[in-house]
Design goal:
The chain contains three helices and 16 strands. The protein is mostly beta strands.
Length: 188
């Protein structure tokens, strides 16, 4: 790691990063991350189940690294289909559900501060999943916690076809077969 001296004279880590990168995507199967982080610098990106569905992140390709996935994961992968499109528009982040199944989204700018439950997005619907105005008005620090543990306000989580929380048999997102974590820049 190279160190660069900022204006105040303190040493800080210098990261070589694309200045246009607005997020990184992490694909998870249950509690295991599958594949590397996927950097996004285009205004929109498609995340889909199988290779023929276009340009973007193919979860089928990443899933080849997890050949011993449980049957529940393999079954959920089949439901992703066209998946989702993430779009960044003037700082707002939108998710477009292109799948035939619902997705479940968790973001601190979506929910009531007292109830960090995921929001269900039906097939062929869209939702603003990050609102920079709301984020600026909330004073979240690194140690912000919910009843479900610590939360990074720059992270958005999307589960494909399966919900989690008190209303579901899966209490944590790490119990969902296939899910995506969107790490908004600056990525931590």
């Amino acid at each position: 790691m190279h160190l660069a001296a900022p204006a105040d004279g303190r040493l800080a880590p210098h990261r070589y990063q694309n200045p246009f990168e607005w997020c990184k995507l992490a694909y998870w199967e249950l509690a295991q991350r599958v594949g590397p982080l996927y950097p996004v610098d285009n205004p929109a990106v498609n995340i889909f189940g199988k290779v023929p569905y276009g340009d973007g992140l193919s979860l089928e390709t990443l899933a080849q690294q997890n050949r011993n996935a449980p049957e529940s994961v393999q079954h959920a992968r089949c439901k992703i289909g066209l998946g989702v499109t993430l779009s960044r528009e003037d700082g707002y982040v939108w998710v477009y559900n292109r799948s035939d199944n619902p997705i479940f989204v968790n973001s601190l700018t979506l929910e009531n501060e007292d109830s960090p439950l995921p929001t269900r997005v039906p097939a062929e619907q869209c939702l603003c999943v990050f609102d920079p105005v709301k984020a600026a008005h909330r004073n979240y620090g690194w140690d912000f916690t919910t009843p479900f543990g610590p939360v990074d306000p720059n992270s958005i989580r999307i589960s494909f076809a399966k919900g989690w929380g008190p209303r579901y048999c899966r209490q944590e997102i790490t119990s969902c077969p296939c899910w995506l974590e969107i790490l908004l820049a600056p990525c931590r």
